[in-house]
Write a structure and sequence with these properties.
Immunoglobulin-like; 8-stranded parallel β-barrel; 13 helices; 40 strands; 30% strand; Alpha-galactosidase; Alpga-gal_N_sf; alpha-galactosidase activity; Glyco_hydro_36
Length: 706
């Protein structure tokens, strides 16, 4: 550390922060700088001139841009004391560091506010964790409108990739040029959302999976959020992120504080793959907590698409036995088990086992599951209530709404106000009772609607609902420490690093169509490792798209995630059962590699193609899938360049699977006809020739170092 400069480093990254009389600013963030005893020359090389026709002094793009300094951009802090102190000017007060975390304290004595910026750059992963805390040190209330993380971007960061989607169509990516102006993405749905996933990538124009300097950002928050990328008129660029607060939602009384959700950010000089591998390792090292970290992630069978609301205990035991024969390791009863739940219009909130469907309780099913060496799991949607339920009839006031206005239903349900102690206690008691009575190791926790006009104690209650949701999970996990939870919200509507610090899996989408899943799982892979990404083999006829796909294409797509099955194994044909058993066994044979290695995506030369895979940390083995999504644009495919291998190693190339019923080739590429060996350098730089295959099909290839 040089006077006024703090140099944070990881294996590949440097972050240099300047402290002076102002709020600290980041001077440099990018490739790792040489280890220098004196970083003072950096201040000279980056000293900013002052242009004509502008403020006469230097304007600092700090960790919290200030209007008071003449920076006419999106400020980091917005709020006031009943209209006063709306443009504060902070000065740097002190730096408190424990060697890993660095806390920069800034104060404005006139506005009676204190800001603390907490930054931690992981030496192991290169991921930056960034929080801001605002404290009201005055006597009167301070109304907070927005508090945003701000990180600078280099002049070369001229292309932006963002995420969009909807139900059954999550994690879609779009690119745009970032040359002038602003791009702002806001989410007001009360959950992470299908539509506006809180992630963004900014980098050199034309960055790809394997090439380009890029910066990745993800806000760990399961509620409303705002991401903002801006190019100032002087050419400086930055990205902001933070919780989107509704009017009047956060008021800080004397002595109170507000802390932002955590921003996760990283720099990669080797494209999107480098970014993903850093984020994935950070999730593995610092965020996800499995009940038993040494145990392989168990293959699921979830009953939803197999039986929907038609629950018959004797038949479910048949499903248990059939599932075990396939190699399933965890059996989950989905929606339909509780009182009055024969369709999606009634029963939510009445978390008592349906005595008509289950007159003898769940014991026989749980015992059958355990006798087959499997774990038992069950579905809940704790935050919701149907108008047609005993709970709503007894407590209509428990709904999260604004008094005097009509609260709309979404999917025939309301949201419960978890911020009311009696509601929170009821939900905990009901879930705890079932978990205490039966050996339930797993919960699929669903949330099938957004928050609308949500009010508690006469204030907007979006932030409060998310906090209460976190507290409910925390209390449940404290009472049942071996419990694992899947976060589901009509699919991928509530997944982020904050909820994943409490859960062990996310359901990527309610759509099990493998063609859609190819895009959904690819989009999710930019931030989430495979071992927590729920990926199931669905029915041959997908109920969300009406399309049919081969068993092989469905099985291969589900390999790349936390694998499961979502259909009725009793009614499956012998051929379907054999296929499912085959892919479950194949997944198990590859599971250690898939769930611990480095995920990569390939840059493909032709439209309508896609390829991704995993290479082991020691580079001894890799597996990848090449997919033809649509009819090939040319009669011949192109060589596939495979990144992330060891260039000095020789790899044996083996075709593991082919889901195409016909390969349109008179002659196959030579490597497909027998054993072939090539170096990692050759496979990456020249590539491996692919065959022309049918649309909506794939091949699976194994690479083994020899």
């Amino acid at each position: 550390m040089t006077e006024n400069l703090v140099h944070l480093t990881s294996k590949n990254t440097s972050l240099v922060i300047k402290t002076s009389q102002h709020i600290p600013e980041i001077l440099y963030w990018g490739k790792k700088l040489p280890e220098l005893d004196d970083l003072t020359p950096l201040m000279a090389t980056l000293d900013r001139p002052i242009p004509q026709g502008r403020i006469d002094s230097d304007t600092v793009l700090s960790l919290c841009p200030e209007l008071a300094g003449g920076l006419f951009t999106s400020p980091g802090l917005e709020g006031s004391r009943n209209g006063q102190h709306w443009a504060p000017a902070f000065h740097f007060d002190e730096l408190v560091s424990d060697g890993e975390s660095h806390r920069f304290v800034c104060k404005d004595p006139l506005a009676e506010l204190q800001l603390e910026f907490i930054l931690k750059l992981s030496k192991a992963t290169g991921v930056l964790e960034y929080d801001i805390a605002l404290s009201n040190v005055g006597e009167s209330d301070y109304q907070l409108q927005r508090l945003s993380h701000t990180l600078p971007l280099p002049a070369a960061a001229r292309e932006l990739m963002y995420f969009h989607g909807r139900w059954t169509h999550e994690f879609q990516t779009k690119r745009m040029s970032l040359e002038q102006g602003v791009f702002t993405q806001e989410n007001r749905r009360g959950r992470t959302s299908h539509e506006r996933f809180p992630g963004m990538v900014v980098g050199q124009a034309g960055f790809s999976e394997s090439q380009g300097e890029i910066y990745g950002f993800h806000l760990g928050w399961s509620g409303n959020h705002r991401l903002h990328a801006e190019v100032m008129s002087d050419g400086r660029r930055f990205l902001q992120s933070g919780e989107l607060l509704m009017p009047g939602e956060v008021t800080l009384a004397a002595g109170e504080s507000y802390t932002t959700p955590k921003l996760y950010a990283c720099f990669s000089s080797d494209g999107l793959n480098g970014m993903s591998q850093r984020f994935h390792q950070h999730v593995r090292n610092n965020i996800i907590r499995f009940a038993n970290p040494e145990k392989p992630r168990p293959v699921h069978l979830n009953t939803w698409e197999g039986i929907y609301f038609d629950h018959d205990p004797e038949y479910i035991v048949e499903m248990v036995n059939a599932s075990a024969e396939l190699g399933v390791e965890r059996f989950i009863i989905d929606d339909g088990w509780f009182k009055g739940r024969n369709h999606d219009r009634a029963g939510l909130g009445d978390w008592y086992l349906d005595a008509e469907k289950y007159p003898a309780g769940l014991a026989a099913i749980v015992d059958a599951v355990k006798a087959k060496g499997m774990e038992f799991g069950i579905w809940f949607e704790p935050e919701m209530v149907n108008p047609d339920s005993d709970l709503y009839r007894a407590h209509p006031d428990w709904v999260l709404k604004t008094d005097g206005y009509h609260q709309v239903t979404v999917r025939n349900q309301y949201v419960l106000n978890l911020q009311r102690p009696e509601v929170f206690d009821y939900l905990f008691e009901r879930m705890d009772a079932l978990l205490s009575e039966y050996d339930i190791r797993y919960i699929k926790w669903d949330m099938n609607r957004e928050l609308v006009q949500s009010t508690h104690n006469n204030k907007a209650a979006y932030h409060g609902h998310v906090d209460a949701f976190y507290r409910l999970i925390d209390q449940l996990k404290l009472a049942h420490p071996t419990l694992e939870i899947e976060t589901c919200s009509g699919g991928g509507g509530r997944v982020d690093y904050q909820v994943l610090s409490r859960t062990q899996r996310f359901w990527a989408s309610d759509c099990n169509d493998p063609l859609e899943r190819q895009a959904i799982q690819k989009g999710a892979s930019y931030f989430f490792p495979l071992e927590i990404t729920g990926a199931h083999i669905g029915a041959g006829l997908c109920h969300t798209t009406g399309r049919q796909h081969s068993d092989g294409f469905r099985g291969m797509t589900a390999l790349f995630g936390h694998m499961g099955v979502e259909l009725d194994p009793v009614k499956a044909t012998n051929e379907e059962k054999a296929t499912m058993a085959k892919y479950i066994a194949l997944h198990k044979s590859l599971r250690q590699l898939l769930h611990s290695g480095d995920h990569f995506r390939c840059d493909t030369a032709h439209q309508g193609t896609q390829a991704w895979g995993v290479v082991g940390k020691d580079k001894q083995e890799a597996v990848f899938m090449f997919t033809q999504l649509e009819l090939a644009e040319y009669a011949l495919a192109a060589p596939l360049q495979i990144p992330c291998l060891d260039p000095s190693k020789q790899y044996q190339i083996t075709l593991l699977e082919n889901s195409s019923s016909d390969i349109y080739m008179k002659k196959l590429p030579q490597w497909m006809s027998g054993e072939a060996i090539a170096s990692g350098a050759l496979l990456e730089q020249v590539g491996l020739m692919m065959p022309a295959i049918q649309p909506e099909s794939a091949i699976l290839v194994k690479l083994t170092a020899v």
